Amino acid sequence: MSQRTRLFRHTRPYDTDGTRELFVQAVRENVLHHDAHCEGYHRMLAACGFSPRSLQTESDLERLPPLPTLLFKHHRLISRPEHRIVLEATSSGTKGSFSRIAFDLGSLACGTPMVLHTAAHRRLLSPRPVNYIILGYKPHRGNRMAVARTAFGSTFLAPALHRSYALQYRDGGYVPDLEHVLAHLTAYSRLPFPVRFMGFPSYTYFLLRRMEERGVRLMLPKHSKIMLGGGWKEFYTQQVDKPVLYEMIRRLLGVEESHVIEFFGAVEHPILYCDCPYHHFHIPIYSRVLIRDVHTLEALPPGQPGLVNLITPLMTAVPVTSILTDDLGILHEEPCPCGIRSPYLELLGRVGLQDIRTCAAGAAQLLGGEGGLT
Ligand SMILES: [Zn+2]
Fold first, then answer.
1. Could you tell me the pTM of the whole model?
2. How far is the CA of 35 from the centre of ligand 1 (A)?
């Protein structure tokens, strides 16, 4: 069994101390794979003077050169033959400026236990049938957005009786239809089954505001949950003040804050980050987060703001082992009352794109030439 498989099958998603060595071994195995099968990646590592075999301890991870996420918007780097690619997911960008990330069967097979273990830890797996309100995209075969797929995927954590979508596909495009969702929600609230929301915090807020304007107050059945998630960027581009949202959820839906669960992930780094009851995004055993100085890219100690660098050995079809985002964040190491001991990430916003563009252009130059890129 590969080290990656062992890591992703580990049943305790926050057992960092018990999996430290396994994580480093899995990253080394993953980097060796990409180095051998992606010519562009190999050239970049060589140009940086980095040898995958030199990855021995967790502190070596900061020497692994990260690829800027912008690079994946313009280049298709592949470490698997085309026939082994079973799925492609895209980020939710405007036309032409999104990342396309390929999955092989091995990555999907490892992603599944990760989702199940993380969901079980937050008590989201349930045999009790529920009605779903999806404040996001209704699946459509032309829609490859990771966010649409994860929203749909989340409706399998508890058996679905019915699903109602806020973004309907009509005449070749998506249109929001909150009236449709509100009608379903009102009907669901009268049934004896729990209701689960899943979707963008912004749409959840729009729906609640509409309820408020109309004086609609519902008391959702016991065990109902509000799951908030979307793209990584949602967490600071949306103008929703979280405490305000929690208060509206309690007042208009009768759901307590402890039943409001938030997720995030990124298409270039498909790890499921789920908040704890104190709404902290602890780093699970499947990944590491480094914060780097905006100018020097040196790794910074916890508590200092900088660029977010994400590391995971999940993907074997694309060399996204270590990616540098254009997001600013802080890693907190202070203890959290929830009992999880791994640090948690706070996202602050984005840096000016200019610096990162330069960085991406530099990497693209290194990766350029024949082989590895299309
Ligand atoms: Zn916590």
1. 0.86
2. 36
